[in-house]
Specification:
Layout lengths: L4 E2 L6 E2 L2 H11 L4 H20 L14
């Protein structure tokens, strides 16, 4: 079982992290806190996707220019 993701601004909980993100963007879209959290999540997602990039031989890909 996965841990529920709780909205930091209300009592809503979601099983899926993406559902919580949609909730934040729709229900709390004007909140500066939500803007910060969404931007932070995007930055973390970008960093983690960089670490998972590998070639067929399991060697990291060279950075693009």
């Amino acid at each position: 079982m996965t841990d529920p993701h709780s909205c930091p601004l209300c009592s809503e909980t979601y099983d899926d992290r993406n559902d919580l993100r949609v909730h934040l963007e729709v229900k709390h879209r004007k909140s500066e806190v939500v803007s910060y959290l969404v931007e932070l999540d995007a930055a973390v997602t970008d960093i983690s996707s960089d670490h998972e990039s590998t070639t067929v031989d399991e060697e990291p890909q060279a950075p693009s220019a």
